[in-house]
Amino acid sequence: MGWIDTELVLVTIAAMLSPTTLTFSTLVLVLSDRPFRAGFWFYLGALVATLAIGVIAAIVLGDAAASSHPSTPKRWVAIVDVVAAAWILTWVTRVMRQPRNPARTAAMMEQMRRVTASPAIAIVGAGATLANPGGFIPLALKEISELDPSRAGYVADWLFFAFVSLLPLSVALVLLLVAREWTERLLEGARGWLELHARTVAAVLLVLVSLALLRNGIAGLTA
Predict the structure, then answer these.
(1) Which tens digit of pLDDT belongs to each residue from 11-55?
(2) Which of 6, 9, 29 is nearest to 170 (CA)?
(3) Inter-CA distances, 37 with 111, 116, 117, 166, Å
(4) What's the CA angle centered on 134, arms 72 and 128, to 5 degrees?
(5) What's 132's DSSP letter?
(6) In sequence order, what DSSP letters do the residues of 73-84 get, joined into one string?
(7) DSSP character at residue 72
(8) Start-to-end Cα distance in the chain
(9) What sections of 2-146 are H helices per DSSP?
(10) What is the DSSP letter of 70?
(11) Across the chain, which distance is largest between two alpha carbons, in Å?
């Protein structure tokens, strides 16, 4: 596995464990009277939005970031990597210094209560906006473009990113079908754990992502 593949895996894992996505995904299941229904439509919205972005990017970006020498990225890609790494490290530092905000948590819960009581189409829309991988999407697109994949390779890489980034929610949906009461208790515990530890886990992963980007960027700028 090369550096670009490693970066793609790190970005995908960071997207999967994003505190925002995990929190919204957990709340949509915990706060709903019909958790599987709400969770399914929420998941579908996020998945369709992520896949749609991948289709558009395949047309617009393609293999523009690919280098003839995989170990040395193009100069503009290297600049993007360094800027992205600096931005991520700055953002992580700022967020970790901020105290937890109970008011923001309460607002998120109220928002998700309204979502879970809405028609299916509204839940799909909420999933598309709240549970998609967000800022990790452009990073994943860049990594895939750098790999210079074939059409089939691009599809495989983007499907990998889309499904793995939403893996916690899909696993929770399967568990709800198999053992609903046990899963609901598990989700309640997960909700409390996320409030305490999600930021720390995400910060560690984001630092790893930024270091990988920084390494790639420096390699391109000094080549």
Answers:
(1) 999 888 888 888 888 889 988 889 999 999 999 999 999 999 988
(2) 29
(3) 17, 9, 11, 16
(4) 140
(5) S
(6) --HHHHHHHHHH
(7) S
(8) 21
(9) 3-16, 19-30, 35-60, 75-97, 102-116, 120-130, 136-146
(10) T
(11) 58
CA distance 211 to 88: 10
And the tokens for 42?
Answer: 């929420």
Written as six digits, the tokens of 183 are 């899963």
Picking from 214, 172, 207, the residue whose alpha carbon sits closest to that of residue 96 is 207
Q: Are 164 and 18 within 8 A, CB to CB?
A: no
Residues belonging to the chain: 223
DSSP per residue, 46-57 = HHHHHHHHHHHH
Question: Which pTM was predicted?
Answer: 0.84
User: Is the pLDDT reported for residue 1 higher than 60?
Assistant: no
Two tokens, residue 145: 């473009």
Minimal CA–CA distance to 144: which of 54, 18, 53, 47?
54
Q: Which residue has the tokens 């793609």?
A: 8
Cβ neighbourhood burial of 36 (10 Å; 0-12, 13-18, 19+): middle
- Look at the alpha carbons of 182, 186, 187, 189 in this order and tell me if their dihedral is positive or negative: positive
Using the structure block, give the residue that is written with the tokens 């957990």.
26
pLDDT in tens, 162-210: 999 999 999 999 999 999 889 888 888 888 887 777 788 888 888 888 8
Token output for 112 = 């998700």
- For residue 138, give Cα distances in angstroms to 5, 130, 143: 15, 16, 9
Distance CA 41, CA 127 (A): 7
User: Which structure tokens are listed for 5?
Assistant: 């593949």
